[in-house]
Amino acid sequence: MAWPLQDAGMWSGLLCGALFGVVLESAGFGSPAKLTAQFRLSDWSVFKVMFTAIVVAATGLWLLRVTGLMNADAVFVPTSFVMAAAVGGALVGAGFAIGGYCPGTSVVGLFSGRLDALVFVLGLLAGTVVFAGLYGPAVEQLLALGEVAAGDTFADAFGIPDVLMLVVMGAALVLVFWLGSRMERARRGPVTAEQAVAGSNAHLTR
Amino acid sequence: MSSLSSSAFGRRVRPFWPPLLAGVALGLVLLLTFVLTGHGLGATGASTRLAAWVGLSVAPQATVANAYLGPMVAQGQPMASWISWQVLGVAMGALASAFVAGRFRVQFDGGKSVGLGKRLVTALLGGLMAGFGARVAAGCTSGLGLSGAATLAIAAFVFLGSFFAVGLVASRVVRGL
């Protein structure tokens, strides 16, 4: 039960962040043309990378939990505010499709030289200020609507065993790779690094 | 070498990692983050704190009085947080990776496809919606979607489902780049 180490210091932040940044950039996620191609279903890298990462990390966390190496109670699990997650997810999805980035990838875009990503970041800050301006007891109540009272995870709320969740997620991952690769071949195919560096053009985003 | 295959610094453009490799690497980084800190990776935790910091400099009274940003500036240093270091790390990692792989190029991406003026609007509008939405959901694609899903949280899967469904529709209605 020695883990997690609860290290909230500068070095763990810089380390985890730097590795995160290297992986995101290497996956091509600094390019808005590549990111938004997922929504046009011509490049499935976002689904493939994200779902693989989720399955790997979820399986790892589960293994650490059942072997007793990790104290499950000390791991942060987001509260099941279903309404807030659905509405917020919709807005971030629309913002991603229109703006070309999500908040994390806009940092990657900016630091691979993209000035449009800087504009997106300014939009992020403005959106935060607008939310803060509206925030109050009424908004707080609204966002807590639809909370699953029984728990925050599928195991706690619905009694679905973690192992079953992992198996279903693993099967879904295989499906994403199979279907994604098929659709990539049928369309223009994944956006290459050279296309991404050259920048979005009408051919790529049509 | 054509302008297509060389970046601003004349390095050869290296291909992106295959998705499976990048996904496994991302999963391991996420797992390492959980082991070190007890929580996952994020992004908007830092932009929210940056907004609070800017607010404190520009309109200190309104920021302190604000129900959302006020508690964050109570100690006077809203940026002093693990997530700020993590996002600074993302910036450094992305810069190093893009530079080494010949993928660093200063550009206004999307300006060629939809025009500079329109791209300016879509980038700003997209950022605004994503920034607002991330505060509604109390997390973004990384903080709630990716990190939450690794803990098998219900909210994370609801977020991701809604995120992708609306993204699919929105990209057909509006061409952002």
Q: Gap between N and C termini of chain A, in Å?
A: 52 Å
The coarse silhouette of chain B is globular
Spans of chain A of 5+ residues with little confidence (pLDDT < 50)? none
Order of helices and strands of chain B: HHHHHHHHH
Q: How many angstroms does the end-to-end distance of chain B come to?
A: 27 Å
Strands of chain A, count: 0
Order of helices and strands of chain A: HHHHHHHHHHH
In angstroms, what is the radius of gyration of chain B?
19 Å
| Overall mean confidence score, pLDDT of chain B | 94
Q: Report on the biggest sheet of chain B.
A: none
Give the count of helical stretches of chain B: 9
Summarize the structure.
The complex is a heterodimer of chains A (206) and B (177). With 206 residues, chain A is mainly alpha-helical. Chain A has helices spanning 10-27, 32-37, 45-66, 82-99, 103-110, 115-134, 137-143, 154-158, 162-186, 193-198, 202-205.
How would you describe this structure to a colleague?
The complex is a heterodimer of chains A (206) and B (177). By secondary structure, chain A is mainly α. Chain A is built from eleven helices and no strands. In chain A, helix 3 runs antiparallel to helix 9 (162-186). The termini of chain A are far apart. The model of chain A has no long low-confidence stretch (mean pLDDT 96). Chain B is an all-alpha fold. Chain B has helices spanning 19-37, 44-58, 60-65, 70-73, 82-100, 111-114, 116-137, 141-150, 154-173. In chain B, helix 8 packs across helix 9 (154-173). Chain B is globular. Mean pLDDT of chain B is 94; it is low at 1-6.
